[in-house]
Amino acid sequence: xxxxxxxxxxxxxxxxxxxxxxxxxxxxxxxxxxxxxxxxxxxxxxxxxxxxxxxxxxxxxxxxxxxxxxxxxxxxxxxxxxxxxxxxxxxxxxxxxxxxxxxxxxxxxxxxxxxxxxxxxxxxxxxxxxxxxxxxxxxxxxxxxxxxxxxxxxxxxxxxxxxxxxxxxxxxxxxxxxxxxxxxxxxxxxxxxxxxxxxxxxxxxxxxx
Length: 209
Hints:
Layout: H1 8-20, E1 45-46, E2 52-53, H2 99-107, E3 114-117, H3 123-140, E4 144-148, H4 165-175, E5 183-188, E6 198-203
């Protein structure tokens, strides 16, 4: 179906549109060349016995020699400061009391001179309170300190313990304490003094040891 002829205004507008149109530039597309064919495999060598002789291995390149590096320990270097080993905290042994003391503690007939209650504390605040309380008890000359820790963690519990975290840490705290030399023994408390939730800390008198 033929269109109607353009009027003068339309013809002028069309001429402007045609003048603004630029032809698209042709872009050459490079077609990759065909890869060269692979060389044919070498013909097998047939020996006198009629069997195929295996091809010799390809020659290996030059192997670089291994370089051995010797590291001099820091302590052996010139000008190095000597390494001082930190003292390891010694656990408080159980056989530091005579039989009379152990019997009295087991029967609960010993009255503690003072007590420290760690209930409701975080591990950090409980550790700090224990350190301060031990120092005060030693300064007063106390012999038996009752330490209320709460019940120990359940046997099947794993660290970090949901219950008994303070009780679980007390042994390490006492062994590494600055007051460890003043502690003669640690024993479980009698039920009248807290049972599984408390400990007796037996302190030395002066230079007793």
